[in-house]
């Protein structure tokens, strides 16, 4: 057995490192976290300095056992989990497990090694300069885990009782939800305001250009100075037949500097904007590039560690980048000195580098053949951004022209011309919600006092627009600006909001669901401090202070817990009605009692406060004075359970048939009976397989005797036995890669036969 044992988090990283370190090292992966808090109440002992009860994660027990067995044989143990607080905590957990098993032999060496890029030189340098585990970083991560546990295990059960089971609240998830809900409230409260602009169309030679009225009767115009059609008509009438001349020409030079290299946050934002990925997909792809890609026999980490707040680049990287620019671009593209970027994040974690390629000489085209589509797109974006950040600014010639029309009007025309592309030749940063830049227009050469033809003078109507809903990119930007969470957690925050169905996506923009709005209102009304943006950011500052050793972690938890626990206890007395209902100043047309906005399984609606005594309801947006819509009765049928009439109702997933006696009788059935394939169920041999739709509209085939028999398959079944395992049913599978094929639905069998080859590629 090798004398040296290196422990990393990921098996793919282990394969890469093995090639660098050779046969003197055995390299094992922990497969991420090895221990977690026991998932039950009391795992954080608030009475005894927040002592935590950990247990080995079930799915990783075999990996922990392998590590323990290897430690017995090794002389030197190196802990090389990821270079951040979470990675530091994983190394500490491994040491605690070894301590519990009495494997910390004093004769052995146990050290922590850290590298921010998986290259041979970086890895070997880290091995040569090991250190002890940083207890401050571990304490900061423990404090974060304890805070998240205390919030989740106290707020979530409260939500189950007061709103609906299965909901959750989180320390950073809840302020993020608040951002989305408050934006929606702004949009609903927004009242559009009309205003007009006046435009002049002119030309010189063959070049046409436009100008906008900027001054009228000696006054500079503001946005709402032409408020309506009548005002603009009066101005147009005054300008009818007036001559135009150039009053002033202003020429300036402008430059634009490149954006800093990527941090975790800006990488996620650009991945969403430029590549159309989700933040979760960006981070998963970046992890693959960091851990190593097989480049035709050589496995190499292509980028540095992707969880970082820093914009700094190492001196070695700067030399390589500047050398590449010098070799591949004209001398005007290379600045005299390296460009140094300063970190804007006050919560910057450990002194990492920015996200960059491990070698700028490894161009995207040179590795394209070895990368998936996502890997190539993301690597190309990181490579270009890194290269561009060390290039000269782009240079523009700008021109502004004042055109007098008659004695009362001055129109302004502006434009710019790119003189030297600089960094734009390689990369340009995208932005959210930016209107088209009128300054990009090209203007002809104009001279002062020059007469111009008036081709057309016209007015244009505008209305103010509400603030845009958050996209994933703009939400990440807002979370960072408010100091909510860490950039490395943004993807998981967004994923949780989607998974809990607190938000929907419409045209890639977040809209809070009815459940999300009720949860947000409950938290902002009753736990105001804990979803406050400043409070959340202040807590992040305290965690940073713990990580650098300037603050103790137990007092931070103690201060938080005392006030939080008191609030939770106080809110136990709230009724569900107080939380989920909002009483209206409107009487029920059926019984005369008050109506309220209520939360049901399919969202919010208006219903009587005396339910179930009075069952009056209407949709939230329906007219209160409209005559109630009579339910559509299913003819010639009654409920098979209670013999009441059956009604056609509208539910979350469309129309269905339900008993008119609901909620006393809860019988429901689909509007259209499932199509029967006639294929006998291979599991129970009693029913037949029927075509049904999942909640997301996808077809599947399940036994007609459900729930007595739960057999189901996604693919259309046929009544043919498998020639290999004799299973009585085969399925028809259609894919672009393999065409149409018969398959055995038994995974352990795996038999298949192509019956129609795939269509040829065009």
What is this structure, in a nutshell?
With 762 residues, the protein is of the alpha+beta class.
Would you mind describing this structure in some detail?
With 762 residues, the chain is α+β, with helices and mostly antiparallel strands. It is built from 18 helices and 36 strands. β35 and β36 form a beta hairpin. α3 packs across α5 and α8 packs antiparallel against α13. The mean pLDDT is 90.
List the SSEs and their pairings.
Blueprint (H helix, E strand, L loop, with lengths): L3 E5 L2 H11 L3 E5 L5 E3 L6 E2 L5 E2 L1 E3 L4 H13 L2 E4 L5 H16 L8 E4 L7 H9 L6 H28 L10 H17 L4 E11 L2 E10 L2 E2 L8 H11 L4 E13 L7 H12 L3 H13 L1 E2 L4 E2 L14 H14 L35 H4 L5 H16 L5 E12 L3 E12 L30 E2 L3 E8 L8 H11 L7 H10 L3 E4 L2 E4 L1 H13 L6 H15 L5 H19 L4 H5 L1 E6 L6 E7 L2 E6 L8 E3 L12 E7 L6 E7 L2 E6 L8 E3 L4 E6 L7 E6 L5 E5 L8 E2 L3 E2 L11 E6 L3 E5 L8 E5 L6
Parallel strand pairs: 1-2, 1-7, 7-8
Antiparallel strand pairs: 3-6, 4-5, 9-10, 9-18, 10-11, 10-16, 12-15, 12-17, 13-14, 15-16, 19-20, 21-22, 22-23, 23-24, 25-26, 26-27, 27-28, 29-30, 30-31, 31-32, 33-34, 34-35, 35-36
Helix pairs in contact: 3-5, 5-16, 5-17, 6-15, 8-9, 8-13, 9-12, 9-14
EC number: 5.6.2.1
Family: Belongs to the type IA topoisomerase family.
InterPro entries: Topo_IA, Topo_IA_2, Topo_IA_AS, Topo_IA_cen, Topo_IA_cen_sub1, Topo_IA_cen_sub2, Topo_IA_cen_sub3, Topo_IA_core_domain
